[in-house]
Amino acid sequence: MMNSGCDMMWLGMLAGVLAFWVIVVLAVRALFPGQKSAGADRPRPDALVLLDEALARGDVSIDEYEKRRHLLINGR
């Protein structure tokens, strides 16, 4: 029971250290807001381009290609 004050002191110190590092990380992120991962800036390829590539690889038949292309262009 005599150690409970000491335990509380350690918990307080741990909370203080954790708060310090959270503040440091948030400050660094605020100073450098434009830094993103390398893959985040790549645009997504167009669906028709992906379909053309699938046809070129032989992943879809010509009939399937025409059906999917029609759906992509007309929506029905």
Kindly describe this structure:
The N and C termini lie far apart (75 Å). The chain has three helices and no strands. It is rod-shaped and about 80 Å long. Helix 2 (47-57) packs antiparallel against helix 3 (62-74). It has helices spanning 4-31, 47-57, 62-74. It is mostly helical. 68% of the residues lie in helices and 0% in strands. The longest helix is centred in the N-terminal third of the chain and has 28 residues, at 4-31. The mean pLDDT is 86.
Which key phrases capture this entry?
76 residues, single chain
Name the helicity range. 55-70%
Please mark out the parts with pLDDT under 50 across 5 or more consecutive residues, or reply none.
none
| Secondary-structure element series | HHH
The secondary structure category is mainly alpha
Distance between the termini: 75 Å
Query: Could you report the average pLDDT, rounded to the nearest whole number?
Result: 86
| Strand element count | 0
